[in-house]
Every structure is written in structure tokens, then in C-alpha cells.
Design brief:
Chain lengths: 310, 569
């Protein structure tokens, strides 16, 4: 186990390094300039501004400098926010994104699992159709449509929750979290339903039943556990996406999150933020995948985390 | 089979419910509108004195990127700066530059080169006095190469003595033409007489900075609202440097604090218009800018205020694409396109956001002579929609080029409104100019800039907002080889006019005015170097109790110094 984890950690570093390198060169291939008033500056003045941000150096030199700074934990200073360090910006913006993401994920997965199980256990009944319909709605209607409807009905019309802005504490997070939950809800319910139906029809369930196991026992002890594996696989990347910000939802509810900022940084060629945010996202995703692999072993003891010596 | 029918039924119900919800929206909107009407009328009847509670709630469309006046380049930043700081001059509600930190008008040397300002008794928000040194320090700081300021050299070059040489690196920044003769006397030496110099003094880059404070803050300077000093009508509060929210609080140290009525302004950044409109409808915000579909939806709302802007949008005709002569090198082709589409329909139906058709370069309500005559009156509309003239020029152009068909690419932005507009322009021009094939290329701003710099386009849809209150801010864009030209337009007559406008005619307002009129006529109505399309306008929803917000044609767009709340309760 220890050997396996060590090997995985080394792979994680290599992956991270490759992503950093690829992003850096892709970013340099973006057209345009991060200097907002470049068109207004004289060539000599433009040269001074470019020199300040090392943009006048060859790309290889910029890359070397960037990687050295990265090793020291320095992600540089943003072009848009002229004296804000990228680390500071990410840290400030991450809190709201993380809160919304985790609430949305937990809510969505919890309800999704319940709906999926009901659908599987009551196959081809009104319960099944109902939860399937909810899943279809969740998948086919984008989260921003839910967000707009929730905002209109629950905030503007009935005034239960704030319309937008990040000012009313936890209450501000309710509507965006619900809007975000629809995606994972649909995914979770679909996976659980399909997997459980398959598992419920397998031989060992028939055996368990014939041995006198109760319906509850069969559903939770045997079927549910096995149905969780594929769900965990898709939930990993889904969690990384949700926790690191949803740009549309953040924009609709005017939340100071990282998602919208990331898109803006690409539009304005704000290299330090593009790099910083991408690296943060990738590090997070790499970590999530790692955790998912560990979880496999816990959920299903048949999957052994053995080392490469076998 | 049974399954699918069931699902189909559910699907139908879903569609119906969404449809009904949408209908509900409309009804509600109407009711709200009527309610608003009655509120407006009541408030008009009852309002007599201004409210006790002077709090304004506003929305901005973007964050403040920096509060360092030497580094500031963006619209939102300049709005904030204009309200929390003050320079030698300030634009009043009528957009006339009036003395602010300058104690009355300066004395000017006979040759128009040396201005001597007296500094009035004004304080920074920490209680210390604003001195002449604060201006000298700020201006030199903006020219210091270590700062790598973008607007410092841009605004000062060719205006303040030595600024051009400093930005080229041949003269030390300490040699800039500004000197504090004593605590209260400031001497500014210009490169040449500059007729619009005093209005320039209201621009944020020229505001003072207290050296001791800036130095003490070091790298932390202007990182949040606590690490800046204020000398304007308001101070900034609760701004963390990158956040979506901030406040303006009345500045008790401001020299003209008795004029300021608002005690607090709460600002939140909301980037989605529907969200902003919801906040407005809920009463959380007092004013919101409309765009896109929302502009046409609210066009007849009694709370809508139309606000003309001074940005002008036009076609840039590239005469040499990637070093090869393009069809647009032909003046008749350019004339045909300039006059070949209906601008009225474009602004009233397609844009429908308060913008107005433009057949000129220098915007309306921007520049006036001493008697208050708008410069716009001089040349009138030079490229108004004229199908006959357009087609005649088109035929002539085709004959000169010896072709029957021309394919042209229109380069535009990738926003929804731009795409809609480009489609309209394409259909109009293809219909009105037989033989024209127009392809559309819609790209993000950064890409467009890149294509512009490399002159890799046929026609580019571009725009310009002025940096100072003078037609020269627009006219100098088309100088031969100029940084914004990028379309191979070159006219020695035009270049000479620019030289005169910015040189020997500086002290002769009438001759200068005429020269500027001639230059505009040349670039728009004779050489058809550019094809003006529209002058930008803004549509704003504003509660009837909000009074006195001043809109400016350049620099910081708004002043809240004279704003107040009347009849809210």
C-alpha cells in the first residue's frame, strides 16, 4: 500500500509538471497582448511595460523563470489587478466557489442516490418514471436556466432568499448551490439506477435472497455498495469542476468566485492568472483522482491497492 | 411503448410549465411597471425637501483593477478615482473644467507654455494638507520607467515638457516639466501650447499623491481601500483589492464637503444584466445599465434614462492587407460602403440601446466653442445613408478596378450584439451594392487587436472613446504611420493639418477650429478613410428619487459629488 501511494505521488508530480509546461506554451500561443492599452503606447513605452513583465524575453527564458518561481511557490502578479498577487487572488476567490461547490455536490449526490435507488427498487413504476424524469431534466436543462428560475421565483417573487450578491451569509449560498446540485443529482441518480438494476439481477443477489436476506439488506449491503463504484469514478472530476467554481452560476449570482475570473483572465491574456488557476485546478483534479483510487479499495475490497511487484 | 408515451407526456407538461412561467413573467413585469408609474407620480407630488437618508446603491460591471492612479487604465477605476480624489481641475455637471484643488485659474505665460497654479487649502483624508509637491511627485512617478505606467507617458507625451524624451528613455524622469515652487505654488511647463490642457487636469493620471504615504506603504500601496489616501468628495471603504464590492463614504476632510449630500454609496459588481435588473426591481439597487435584449424590452419604461456617450464606432478600411493592396484602396469603393447602409434602422431596431447613427468622427455633445456651439454642427452628416450615391460610387469603383464582384471580410467582435449588427450590415451592403460578397469574422477583442496590428483584415469594426475633451483625441488616430492607423491611410494634407492643429494654431482658437473641421471632412467625407456607423449611447434604469449624477464625456464617466436622494420615502 505504502509503495503504491509513493509511486502514485511521484506520478502526480510528473503529471503536474507536464500540465504546467503544456499550459505555459499553449498560453503563449494565445493571440493578443495582456497590456490593455498596448495600442496607445509608443514603441519605447511598450518596451518598458513589456520588460517589467518579462514579456520581452524569449519564451524559453520566460518558461525557466516561471518554473523557478513556481518551485518557490510564487505564481506572480496579475495583469488585470495590477498589484494583486495571483496566490492572494485565488485564495480570496476560492472560499465562495468551494462552499457553493461542496454544498451543490453533497446535495446533488445525496438526492441523486436516493432517487436512483428508488428508481431501481421500484423499476417500471411511477416512482421509477418520476425519478427518471427528474434526472432527464437535470441533464438536459443547463444549470443557468435553473439559476434564473430559482432567482426569479424564490428571490424576486417570494423573497425567501437574496436575489444575488455575497452578503447575506449562508443564505446567499442557497440558490446557487441548488442550481449547481442539479447536474450531480442527475448523474448520481442515473448511475445508481443503472448499476443497481444490473447488480440486483446478478447471481449473488439471487443467492443472498435465497439465503433469506431481507430486501433492505440486499439493497444496501450488497447492491448499493457495488453500484457506488462507477459513481465514484465520475464524481471525482465532477467534484473538481464544481468545487473550483462554476463560471455561469457565479456570474448570475454575482459571487466573487474563481470560475468567472478564470474565463476573464483568458479573454484578457492575463497569463499569471491563467497559469495560477490552471495549475490549481489540475493539482486539485490530480488529488481527487488519487483519492478516488484509494476509495475504490475501501468500497470494493476486490480491488486491491497492491504495488507493482505483483 | 407505454414508457415512451409516459415520458412524452411528462416532457409536454414540462414545456408547457416553462411556457406558462414565461407568460407569468411578462404579466408580472407589466404590473411592476404600473406600480412603478404610480410610485413615480406620488413621489413627484410629495417630494419637497431632500431625504434625510442619503444613501445610494449602485452597480458596476467590473472590478476595480487598481487604485494606483499611476497604473490605472480602466473605465471603472477612473470612475472611482474621479469620486475619491481630485486634481487641479474637475469637470462640473455641465462638463466644463473648473478649478478644484487649483485655487482659481492659473497664471499663464504669454507664449502659453508655463502655467502657475496656486494650491487651495485642501486636505488629504488623514488630515494633512495637499501641497504642490504632491502633484510633482505623482506626475514624475507616472513617468518613472520603474513604474512602467501605461497612461502616464500616453497622457503626458507631447503635452508636458520632456515627457516624450523621458518615455523614449533619453531624458531622466526627474526632468519632467513640473515643479513645486513652494508648498502652495505649482509650475507646469508644456512642450507646446495645448488648448485643452486645463480639461486634461481633471484626468486621473494627473491627480496628486502624497509621497510620504506612498513610500510608507511600499508594495502594499493601493492594494485595498485602507492603503490609499483620498482628497476628493468621498473616501473608499471595504474594498479588498480584488473583490466585487466597495463603498464610498462622504469625506469630511474634503474642501467642498458642504456641496456633497450623499453620505454613503454602496457598489456591487454585477456582470449579468438580468441579475442587475432583478436587484433593481427588488429595490436593492437604485440604478442599472441596460444592454442587449433588456434595452429594447425596457425602452418605453418611464424610469429609463437615455445617456449619450462620446464613443464613436466606425469601419476601418484597410487599404493594404498583409502588404497587398486591397479593394478598399479604391476611394469609390470606400465611399459606396460608407453610404450604403441604413444607419437609422441599425441604431433604432438592431441596437436599440440609445445609440445614434453617426456620419461623422467627432461625436455630438463633446466639444464646444466659447459661445457653446457644438463642433458637430460644422461638417454635419457626411456619410448619411444615400443609396443612389452609394451605388454610383460602387459602379465607378468596380469599373476602376476592372471587376464585377468584390469579396470583402468584415472583422468584428464576438459579442451577441456585435454578431447581430454584423449580420445586419452584411445583408444591407450585399443588397444595396450588387456584386459585393461580404464574409464575417467574429473574434475576441485580443485577437482583433492582433489582426489589426498585423493589418490582416479588410474592414474592421472598431470604436474610439476620447481621452481628453478635444477633437484632436479622435483626429490624431489617422496620422500617417500612427499607432492606431494600421490601415495604410496616408494623406500629406491631413498630416499637415494635424501638425498645425497641435502646433502653430494652438493659440488661435478660430483657425484651429477650422483646421479641425477641415481634417474631419477630409478623413470622413472626402477620402472616406473610415466609415462612421454610430455614436454610442447608454440606456439606464434609474429610480426617480435619484438626482444629480453627472455624466462626463471622458476620464471618469460619473461624478457623485452633486448627487442626492429626494422623495424616496
Amino acid at each position: 500500500m505504502a509503495k503504491y501511494i509513493l509511486r502514485r505521488v511521484i506520478y502526480m508530480f510528473i503529471t503536474f509538471f507536464l500540465i504546467a509546461t503544456a499550459t505555459f506554451f499553449l498560453m503563449k500561443a494565445l493571440p493578443g497582448s495582456p497590456i490593455s492599452s498596448a495600442a496607445k503606447l509608443s514603441p519605447s513605452q511598450l518596451a518598458i511595460v513589456e520588460a517589467k513583465y518579462d514579456l520581452d524575453k524569449p519564451v524559453a527564458v520566460q518558461y525557466g523563470k516561471y518554473m523557478l518561481n513556481l518551485a518557490k511557490g510564487d505564481l506572480g502578479v496579475s495583469f488585470q489587478f495590477k498589484n494583486a498577487s495571483v496566490t492572494e487572488l485565488i485564495m480570496k476567490r476560492l472560499g465562495p466557489s468551494f462552499l457553493l461547490g461542496s454544498q451543490g455536490l453533497i446535495l446533488g449526490v445525496a438526492i441523486g442516490i436516493i432517487l436512483g435507488m428508488i428508481a431501481a427498487l421500484r423499476q417500471n413504476t411511477i416512482w421509477d418514471y418520476g425519478s427518471t424524469l427528474i434526472a432527464i431534466i437535470g441533464i438536459s436543462i443547463p444549470s443557468f436556466v435553473f439559476a434564473t428560475l430559482l432567482q426569479y421565483w424564490l428571490a424576486v417573487k417570494w423573497q425567501i432568499f437574496p436575489v444575488a450578491l455575497w452578503k447575506d451569509g449562508w443564505m446567499s449560498s442557497v440558490l446557487p448551490s441548488i442550481a449547481l446540485a442539479m447536474g450531480p443529482l442527475a448523474t448520481a441518480s442515473r448511475f445508481i439506477r443503472t448499476e443497481m438494476i444490473e447488480v440486483l439481477g446478478s447471481d449473488y443477489i439471487t443467492l443472498a435472497k435465497s439465503k433469506g436476506a431481507s430486501g433492505f439488506e440486499v439493497a444496501f449491503k450488497h447492491a448499493f455498495r457495488n453500484a457506488l463504484i462507477p459513481l465514484v469514478t465520475v464524481l471525482g472530476p465532477l467534484a473538481a469542476g464544481l468545487l473550483t467554481g462554476s463560471l455561469v452560476i457565479e456570474k448570475i449570482f454575482a459571487i466573487p468566485g474563481i470560475g468567472e475570473q478564470f474565463v476573464k483572465s483568458i479573454m484578457t491574456d492575463d497569463f499569471p492568472i491563467i497559469m495560477g488557476t490552471t495549475l490549481f485546478f489540475s493539482a486539485f483534479l490530480i488529488l481527487v483522482i488519487f483519492v478516488v483510487d484509494i476509495l475504490y479499495g475501501i468500497i470494493d475490497p476486490r480491488i486491491r491497492l497492491s504495488g507493482g511487484s505483483n | 411503448m407505454k414508457n415512451s408515451k409516459f415520458l412524452w407526456l411528462f416532457g409536454l407538461m414540462l414545456v408547457l410549465s416553462v411556457f406558462l412561467a414565461a407568460c407569468g413573467d411578462k404579466e408580472d413585469a407589466t404590473t411592476t411597471k404600473e406600480d412603478k408609474n404610480s410610485t413615480t407620480e406620488t413621489s413627484k407630488e410629495t417630494a419637497a425637501v431632500i431625504d434625510e437618508d442619503q444613501v445610494l446603491n449602485l452597480i458596476e460591471g467590473a472590478e476595480i483593477p487598481t487604485m494606483d492612479s499611476s497604473l490605472m487604465t480602466d473605465q471603472v477605476g477612473f470612475i472611482v478615482l474621479n469620486n475619491v480624489n481630485e486634481g487641479l481641475y474637475r469637470l462640473n455637471p455641465e462638463n466644463v473644467a473648473v478649478p478644484a484643488i487649483s485655487d482659481g485659474e492659473p497664471t499663464v505665460s504669454e507664449d502659453g507654455l508655463v502655467y502657475t497654479f496656486k494650491i487651495r487649502d485642501a486636505n488629504w483624508s488623514d488630515g494633512s494638507p495637499v501641497t504642490a509637491n504632491d502633484f510633482e511627485y505623482a506626475w514624475k512617478r507616472a513617468m518613472n520607467p520603474d513604474m512602467a505606467s501605461e497612461y502616464g507617458p500616453y497622457m503626458m507625451s507631447g503635452v508636458i515638457k520632456n515627457a516624450t524624451e523621458i518615455s523614449e528613455g533619453t531624458v531622466d524622469y526627474n526632468e519632467l516639466g513640473i515643479k513645486a515652487l513652494d508648498e502652495k505654488t505649482l509650475e507646469v511647463t508644456l512642450e507646446k501650447p495645448v488648448p485643452y490642457f486645463l480639461s486634461l487636469m481633471s484626468f486621473g493620471t494627473f491627480y496628486p499623491l502624497k509621497e510620504a504615504f506612498v513610500t510608507a506603504q511600499g508594495d502594499n500601496y493601493a492594494k485595498n481601500s485602507d492603503s490609499v489616501l483620498y482628497n476628493g468628495p468621498f473616501t473608499l471603504a471595504d474594498w479588498d483589492g480584488t473583490g466585487l464590492t466597495w463603498k464610498y463614504l462622504k469625506n469630511d476632510q474634503y474642501w467642498d464637503k458642504d456641496t456633497v449630500k450623499l453620505t454613503e454609496i454602496n457598489v456591487d459588481v454585477v456582470k449579468e444584466v438580468p441579475t442587475a435588473v432583478n436587484l433593481y426591481t427588488n429595490g436593492e439597487k437604485d440604478r442599472v445599465g441596460l444592454s442587449g435584449d433588456y434595452a429594447s424590452q425596457y425602452a418605453d419604461d418611464p424610469e429609463v434614462v437615455n445617456q449619450p456617450d462620446t464613443a464613436v464606432y466606425y469601419f476601418k478600411y484597410n487599404q493594404e492587407r498583409l502588404g497587398k493592396k486591397s479593394p478598399l484602396a479604391n476611394v469609390n469603393i470606400r465611399e459606396a460602403i460608407s453610404k450604403g447602409f441604413n444607419k437609422e434602422d441599425l441604431t433604432s431596431v438592431v441596437l436599440a440601446n440609445g445609440s445614434m447613427p453617426a456620419s461623422y468622427l467627432i461625436p455630438k455633445d463633446f466639444y464646444f466653442d466659447e459661445d457653446g456651439n457644438d463642433f458637430r454642427g460644422v461638417n454635419g452628416d457626411m456619410t448619411a445613408f444615400d443609396l443612389e450615391a452609394a451605388q454610383a460610387a460602387w459602379e465607378k469603383g468596380l469599373a476602376e478596378l476592372g471587376v464585377k464582384e468584390i469579396s470583402i471580410e468584415l472583422l468584428g467582435s464576438d459579442s451577441d450584439v456585435s454578431k447581430k449588427m454584423d449580420e445586419y450590415l452584411k445583408s444591407q451592403l450585399e443588397k444595396n451594392l450588387p456584386g459585393l460578397k461580404m464574409s464575417l469574422k467574429e473574434v475576441p477583442f485580443a485577437v482583433r487587436l492582433d489582426l489589426d496590428t498585423n493589418q490582416d483584415y479588410d474592414i474592421e469594426f472598431a470604436g474610439w472613446g476620447p481621452d481628453y475633451q478635444d477633437p484632436y483625441s479622435f483626429l490624431n488616430l489617422w496620422e500617417t504611420g500612427g499607432g492606431n492607423n494600421h490601415m495604410s491611410y496616408s494623406s500629406s494634407e491631413y498630416d499637415q493639418l494635424l501638425k498645425d492643429i497641435n502646433g502653430k494654431l494652438a493659440l488661435d482658437p478660430e483657425a484651429r477650429w477650422n483646421a479641425m473641421a477641415k481634417a474631419e471632412k477630409l478623413v470622413v467625407g472626402e477620402d472616406y478613410a473610415i466609415g462612421p456607423v454610430y455614436q454610442k449611447g447608454a440606456m439606464i434604469l434609474e429610480k426617480s428619487y435619484v438626482k444629480g449624477i453627472a455624466k462626463h464625456p471622458f476620464g471618469g464617466d460619473y461624478s457623485y459629488k452633486w448627487a442626492y436622494i429626494e422623495g424616496k420615502n
